[in-house]
Amino acid sequence: MTEPDTSPTSAASRPGSAHRRDRPAGRGRGRGLGVLRETAVVVVSALVLSWLIKTLLVQPFYIPSGSMEDTLEVGDRVMVSRLVPRALDLHRGDIVVFKDPGGWLPPYVAPDRGPVGNAVTEGLTFVGLLPQDTGEHLIKRVVGMPGDHVTCCDAEGRVQVNGTPVDETYIKPGSVPSQDPFDVTVPDGMLFVMGDNRQDSQDSRYNTSKPGGGFVPVSNVVGTAFATVWPLDHATWHRNPGDVFEEVPQP
User: Fold this and answer.
1) What is the model's pTM?
2) Is the peptide bond before 153 cis (omega within 30 degrees of 0)?
3) How far apart are the first and last CA of the chain?
4) pLDDT tens for each residue of 190-199
5) 112 Cβ contact list (under 8 Å, min separation 6)
6) Most buried of 13, 100, 154, 195, CB within 10 angstroms?
């Protein structure tokens, strides 16, 4: 005769037992919310840091025209140091990005990417994750500083600064320093700028009837371009060609 099984059995092993050890329903949800919070903090911190870098240190810009060829080409993305002229001095030969002094550029109409696309593009550009379109900015090279007397051309077709001719090694091959003569003295607080592609650059020479008389207020300067970072086959540093102007005396 078979004896009934009287061995003890834990309540947890019995189907339907009230003592079964289930995971609390809110624990998984709490962990998920924690991960979301941590991710949000990291993303927001990264965006704030990017905005601070763009505002105080470095900002990317997109090159839309050929006025600075062959130094900069259409489609290049350049990095601009915002330390100049706020913390560091400007110099002749610097490549500067500056806000249009007035009338140098046609009215800018931003491309329409739709409500969502426009919002995303504006947001990423604001924090510095997308390059600033130069629709309201220009990029040229400083040839004359405040007080400089800049003329063109001498007997050899060169630009002269304070009576000293300069051999501008950065000009696009095949270009000449200027096809049109000029003779200007740069006012205080202003710059005289020219493109490296002299025959395809609407620079200080051709904006004398606009606000500022063709000169660029130093206060309009966003910064100096110090590197091309995209496309990769164009990547390079842009150093000031100090030897070009080293013999130029102060005004």
Assistant:
1) 0.74
2) yes
3) 123
4) 999 999 999 9
5) 118
6) 195
